Structures are given as C-alpha cells and as structure tokens.
C-alpha cells in the first residue's frame, strides 16, 4: 500500500499526551509522551498488545476518561483548536459530529431504555436534515416515514438485514456483531472528519468484517475521512491502513508507513509482533514475544521494553530512548538507532 503524500498540517495533532491513574497500589503512568498526527483522508493503525494503552489514547482524545481518578497532561489539537481548552458544551459540539468513535464493546454504548430505532431516528434528525427533506420531496413521504427510510438504508449499508425488526429491538435483543454494525452505522451518520474505530471489526465474522473494512476504506478515499484504526490484528492493519503506529506499555515505539513497518520494522518489539503472526503454508514453530507487559505502577526504568528485548544494552536500563526519524518519516524510539 502506498502512503498518501501528507499535507504539511495534520487535521489532528496529539502532543506529549501523558495520563496517570491513581489507584490503591499507587500511581500508574498508563500513557507517557504520546505524540502523532493524523492527516486528512488517511487511515492510521494504532497496534499493540492488550493493555498497552490504545483505547485510553482514543478516549483521551475525545475527553471520555474520568478525570477524578486520572490526571492528564499534553495537548490534542483539531484543525488548530486545542480540544483540552474547551468546556463541556463546546467539546460536545465536536464529539460525535466532527470526531466520531466506534467503541470496542458496542452493546455497552447502546442505551438499553430506548429501541435502536428511537436512538437512530434522533441522530438522523440531528445530522441529516437536508437528506430528510430530499427524501420527502423525491419519494412523496412525510417526515417520519422519510426518517425511517433513511434509517433502513444506513443499516443496510453496514450489512444489516431485517431492518424493520431491528429498529424495534432493544440492545439486549441483538447479538454482539449486530450491535457493532449498528454502532458503525450511527457513527457514520454525521459524516465525521475523523473516525476513531476501537477494535471496530473484532466482533464480526470474516465476511461482514470484509464488508465493513471496504466501507471504511471507501469513506477514506471518497469522502476524505481520516480514520484512527485501533486494532491488535496486524493483518487488518496491513490491508487497509496507510500508516502504522506501534504502542508498548503506554508509549509509541515506532511509526511509519505500512509498507516500511511490515517490510523493514526497526523496533525489536515491532519485529517480535510481526514474527508472531501465523503464516499460511508454513510449518515452523510459531514465534512469540517472551515475557509480559510490565506493571505500570512500577515500570522498568529507561526503555520499558528492555526486560523482554534480546538486543538490550546497558543504557537501555537507565535512559528512555528518544525518537529518531528517517528521511521517509519512519520514526522509532530505540537506542539501537540513537545518534
């Protein structure tokens, strides 16, 4: 996959994002110095093991973390606007409309009190006023019927069938895969400039997954939607993403275009992840990254990956590696490449 030529200014810029969690065992630094930019129309994957901080990064961007137990520093800028400087009502005008998110556990984010149809109709009235008027005019329907027609069409776009029955259902009456597709349909209603997809296809079977991935790719290419695709599935990242950012223990250790990451990975952790992916037709023993993600209440000094790294040096145990960026915008945080 060829990297699109990025414009000089990203539509979203995350800079020095750090999040501390105060718990009964002490303070855990679950994100430390996270930095990346998202450019218009690109799909960037955020990959890493479970517990490395991918979802917290997404929720921090949208101010969806409980600040009573978490302390957050750093900046997130959307089209030059510092999101963390906004009050609650100002942030709400951006969240959902300009920046939408598909959550990892879809059924927990569907209101159990109202039917799926009632929730869908509300968003259609909010975001698609012009489309409602067009359907009324061209099909001769009243407003209520037009909203229902649009809802069925949007659900069908994500591969859902029996839409009349679905719109009358409640969250507990549908499967996890159906809930995931329903939430994807909702997120796409506002035609957001940025879509954050947190394990958006993890609950889907392979045929529906392929349909959703194709839909997301079309959004990126035809509408210019920027997508942050959070996943642990490197195969999906290779299939649809322009760039890949690799996270480990609350830090981003490598960012590059997809071809570079998969063909010439630099960080030992990235190489370990790629070597652990099963390859069709090969019978060799499956490789894996030995060890576990560290305890973030008492993380290792220096490079957080050094206890699991076969290439560690003495200063890896004492000094945090800084980012090194090559001419092709391939960035890695590893002492092996420090100048």
Task: Give the gist of this structure.
This protein has 339 residues and is α/β, with parallel strands linked by helices. It contains eleven helices and twelve strands.
Fold and architecture overview:
- The protein is α/β, with parallel strands linked by helices.
- It contains 11 helices and 12 strands.
- The strands form 2 sheets. It has an 8-stranded mixed β-sheet, with helices on both faces. The chain has a 4-stranded antiparallel β-sheet with strand order 2-1-4-5, with helices on one face.
- Strand 4 and strand 5 (81-82) form a beta hairpin.
- Helix 3 crosses helix 5 and helix 4 (129-139) packs across helix 5.
- The longest helix has 18 residues, at 206-223.
- It is globular.
- The two termini are 30 Å apart.
- The relative contact order is 0.14.
- The model has no long low-confidence stretch (mean pLDDT 89).
Structural class: alpha/beta
The total count of helices amounts to 11
Q: How much β-strand is present in the residues?
A: 15-25%
Note the gap between the termini: 30 Å
The biggest sheet, with number of strands, parallel, antiparallel or mixed sense and barrel status, is: 8 strands, mixed
The spatial strand order of the largest sheet comes to 6-7-8-3-9-10-12-11
Stretches where pLDDT is under 50 for at least 5 consecutive residues are: none
Structure summary, number of beta strands? 12
Describe the structure using short key phrases:
339 residues; 32% helix; globular; alpha/beta; 8-stranded mixed sheet
């Amino acid at each position: 996959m060829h990297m699109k030529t990025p414009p000089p200014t990203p539509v979203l810029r995350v800079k020095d994002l750090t999040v501390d969690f105060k718990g009964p065992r002490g303070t855990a630094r679950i994100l430390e110095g996270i930095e990346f930019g998202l450019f218009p129309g690109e799909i960037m994957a955020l990959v890493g093991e479970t517990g490395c901080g991918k979802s917290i990064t997404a929720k921090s961007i949208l101010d969806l973390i409980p600040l009573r137990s978490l302390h957050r520093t750093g900046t997130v800028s959307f089209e030059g606007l510092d999101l963390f400087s906004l009050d609650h009502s100002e942030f709400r005008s951006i969240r959902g409309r300009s920046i939408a998110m598909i959550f990892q556990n879809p059924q927990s984010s569907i209101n159990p009190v109202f039917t799926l149809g009632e929730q869908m109709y509300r968003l259609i009235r909010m975001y698609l006023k012009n489309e409602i008027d067009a359907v009324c005019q061209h099909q001769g329907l009243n407003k209520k019927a037009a909203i229902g027609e649009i809802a069925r069409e949007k659900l069908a776009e994500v591969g859902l069938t029996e839409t009349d029955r679905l719109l009358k259902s409640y969250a507990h009456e549908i499967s996890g895969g159906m809930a995931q597709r329903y939430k994807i349909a909702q997120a796409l209603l506002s035609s957001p400039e940025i879509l954050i997809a947190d394990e958006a296809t993890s609950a889907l079977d392979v045929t529906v997954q392929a349909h959703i991935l194709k839909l997301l790719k079309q959004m990126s290419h035809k509408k210019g939607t920027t997508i942050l695709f959070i996943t642990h599935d490197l195969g999906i990242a290779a299939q649809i993403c322009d760039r890949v950012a690799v996270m480990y223990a609350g830090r981003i250790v490598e960012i590059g275009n997809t071809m570079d990451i998969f063909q010439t990975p630099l960080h030992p952790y990235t190489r370990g992840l790629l070597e652990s992916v099963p390859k069709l037709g090969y019978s060799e023993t499956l490789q894996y990254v030995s060890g576990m993600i560290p305890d973030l209440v008492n993380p290792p000094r220096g490079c957080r990956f050094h206890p699991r790294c076969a290439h560690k040096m003495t200063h890896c145990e004492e000094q945090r590696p800084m980012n090194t960026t090559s001419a092709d915008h391939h960035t890695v945080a590893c002492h092996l490449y420090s100048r």
